[in-house]
Amino acid sequence: MSLLRFKMVERAINNKAIYVKAPASQPSDYYGSKVFGRNAMRKYLNRQTYDALIDTMESGTPLTADIADSIAAGMRQWALDNGADHYTHWFQPLTGGTAEKHDSFSEPDGRGGVLEEFSGKLLVQQEPDASSFPNGGIRNTFEARGYSAWDPASPAFIVGTTLCIPTIFISYTGEALDYKMPLLRSLAAIDSAATAVCQYFDKSVSRVKTYLGWEQEYFLVDEGLWAVRSDLMLTGRTLMGHESAKNQQLEDHYFGAIPERVMAFMRDLEYESLMLGIPLKTRHNEVAPNQFELAPVYEEANLANDHNQLLMTIMDKVARRHNFRVLLHEKPFKGVNGSGKHCNWSIGTDTGINLIGPGRTPQENLQFIVFLVNVIAAVHRHNGLLKATIMSATNEHRLGANEAPPAIISTFLGTQLSTVLDKLERSKSEDAIRFDAKNVFKMSGVQHLPSIFLDNTDRNRTSPFAFTGNRFEFRAVGSSANCAEAVIVINSIVAEQLTRFKRDVDAKIESGMRKEKAIYEVLKRLIKESRAIHFDGNGYSEEWRLEAARRGLDCETSTPLIFDRYLDKTTIDMFRSVGVYTPVEVEARTEVKWETYTKKIQIEARVLGDIAMNNIIPIASKYEGILLDKAWKLKELGLSATTDIELIQRIQHHTAQIQSLTAEMIERRKVANRIDDQRAKAIAYHDTVAVYLDQIRHHIDKLEEIVDDQLWPLPKYRELLFLK
């Protein structure tokens, strides 16, 4: 095994950057070339079909069977012209990844030949079954069928030789089994609620869209070194490994020159992404060694989420061409920064106004304050639920460390904006409200807000949900997560809060209060009620943890217990009121979360036990035998063997602890496995099994410091993190 390690180290050292040729001279020449976008639609669809599809995409107008057939014919011909020979309904099950089942365009013609067939029926709906995906009990054995249905708002694309059609995935009885369906529901919910509030300020607003800008962090590891580490291969993280003498303490990797081999990978990935219509914009070294980040231009949330899911798939494929493996685990290496996926969220009108950004007029600034305060109120009301959206068996290793926000939700607004809200809360109506000659409502301290806040350049990196000038940055989302999980909840809670806001304002108006004063009164109350969620200080401090508890914020740290927030009555009522999840769907998804958590810890425990007993203990024993032989010979010669005996004793101690702790962990796992209830089983795995992982790791890492480097079987951190 040690020989394999050094062989892979040598190979990693000798790996060179692979030349990558750009598809064309300029990105504009090939951008979206693998996407059935509007340019392709114009070419392959007749005018009637094109107009009908655009109407469906923009307004949700149902497609007729004839139009669907016409779209399918055009899409098929475009796909064939671009080298595709199969098609698939591409969906996002509750595994967190994507799924696809490929079918050939070729159909027997009954005369010994084949025809390229692809009807509107096949485009719009399929029955992939996919009964093995987690569903939380929604799909019983006797009704396990699942259906995928085309989402026209997401353009089809080609990967390799397969036409991929973005779809939703639902059960036989109509429940959502994926992330896209509830995301689409949440987008509709916030559109309706936000548009209604916008009517207070601009009657021309007819639609509000949600926008998402994600930042994808990841690690790259040489493929050969990855293959020798079964923990990386099977769990995505190193379950053992002593910190390298040098890691990130010099901060010399952050924003440094991108290594040549990595740059080749990045260029290749960018070419693939741009051809698929993913508008990648930014690339750079992150803080930890061999950690990197990329980010696109902001897009409509549904499309942005599709692009992130697609990117995570092609990242792996491209990395393998360059003899790398991509690590999307939130904490693959102990002692250095983990990886997140910051989700930058905003909403905007069809008239071009960003509702989460200060405006140019007093009226626009008032509108901005209204939406800002309602978002904050929603986050405060559902702070526990918002935390539940980002918790997982993988992200729990990252949250609360020095590079990531704590597992306590709070909002950061910045000094200037906090001052404005404080002033508004403390003011009397006659101090805060005034009218100009045209009876336009103005607020003292609001109408003069600048377009750019000073705090933009000094964002609070410890805040999980920070306002950054024209959007909110949800920094707690994990790097491997589906962005939809967080966006669904943000959209839903904000939609509910905006609906409550409009109800309260309208009630005051109906009682005879002026609209402007009614808005002011409700805003003032919301600011006061949600004050507990405001925190502009150090989120890493122990003082904040104590203060957060005093404020009544959710401070739970056990991942299985955090998932309980999905089942709170306030949560179920909220989802039902905005039409995003039924109670059955909420319960099912929570069940899946517990089940997934259990399985991930179970796999880690099994992998660690296998490595400990079959790799580490034998190697430590072998080295112990060498030391015993040496000590015996020294004693025979009358020389002191004290140092060697001390080493032998240390090895014996650590190996004995590993064996004992591993045996205990196995027994604990057996007990937990006998539990039928998924919640109870997840809690048992968290409380009685997962606790052994770090304990066993401690002793293995101590052995790594002692055992002869030439015998140690696993690539060490210095090799995994610094060979690129």
What does this structure look like?
49% of the residues lie in helices and 12% in strands. By secondary structure, the chain is an alpha+beta fold. It folds into three domains: 31-177, Glutamine synthetase, N-terminal domain (Ubiquitin-like (UB roll), Roll), CATH 3.10.20.70; 187-594, Glutamine synthetase/guanido kinase, catalytic domain (Creatine Kinase, Chain A, domain 2, 2-Layer Sandwich), CATH 3.30.590.10; 595-722, Up-down Bundle (Four Helix Bundle (Hemerythrin (Met), subunit A)). Strands 9, 10, 11, 12, 13, 14, 15, 18 and 19 form a nine-stranded mixed beta sheet that branches. A hairpin with a 5-residue loop joins strand 16 and strand 17 (441-443). Helix 16 packs across helix 17 and helix 22 runs antiparallel to helix 23 (678-689).
Give the count of helical stretches: 25
Mind telling me which CATH architecture of the largest domain this is? 2-Layer Sandwich
Structural class by SSE content: alpha+beta
Strand content: 5-15%
Helix percent band: 40-55%
Oligomeric state, counting identical vs distinct chains: single chain
Q: Would you count the extended β strands for me?
A: 19
Biggest sheet overview: 9 strands, mixed
Please give the domain count. 3
> In CATH terms, what is the fold-level topology of the largest domain?
Creatine Kinase, Chain A, domain 2
CATH superfamily of the largest domain, by name, is Glutamine synthetase/guanido kinase, catalytic domain
Would you tell me the overall average pLDDT? 89
What's the level 1 CATH class of the largest domain? Alpha Beta
Low-confidence stretches: 433-441, 448-458
Radius of gyration from the alpha-carbon trace, in angstroms: 28 Å
- Span of the ends, CA to CA: 22 Å
Please tell me what the overall shape is. globular
